[in-house]
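At this stage, I needed to go through a protein sequence along with its fold in token form, as given directly below:
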Amino acid sequence: MNPLIQRAISMFNKARQKADWRKGKCAILHCDPALYDMDNVAFTSGYRMHSAGIRTVPLHAIRGTLGRQHDFDQRFYPLSDRLQDRWVNIAVARLRDEPVGLVRLYLVNHCYYVEDGHHRISVAHALGEAAIDAEIILLDSLLSRAEKEYE
């Protein structure tokens, strides 16, 4: 087997073990290791969506997801073995220094939510990286904009 594939599989298995360990720890400490779900963010018609361009985002600032809270925990450890094939393919590409594309994030109330790129973020964490390049969509509260204009 290709050594890069072996390394990527080993990285995935280690990330899965960490996910299981965190899940057990949180069960004991009564904490929730799940990603925040953007579906639970209270939205009103008072939000405006617009592109904020491409930014380098610290991985620790990415705290939520759009519908994938059962696939990854808050540290983007994979929660299921069914994620392995895609995860390993991305890890191998990263280990070969091949481009894997930007992730797509929503920025809401100072919290980043992943729309596209969960596996890429997980692999970046496993590689010990501190940040990732992302396309940012800003959900801007019309109320906070009015408050800024008032000041």
Q: What stands out?
A: Residues 3-150 form one domain. Confidence is low (pLDDT under 50) at residues 143-151. The longest strand covers residues 47-58.
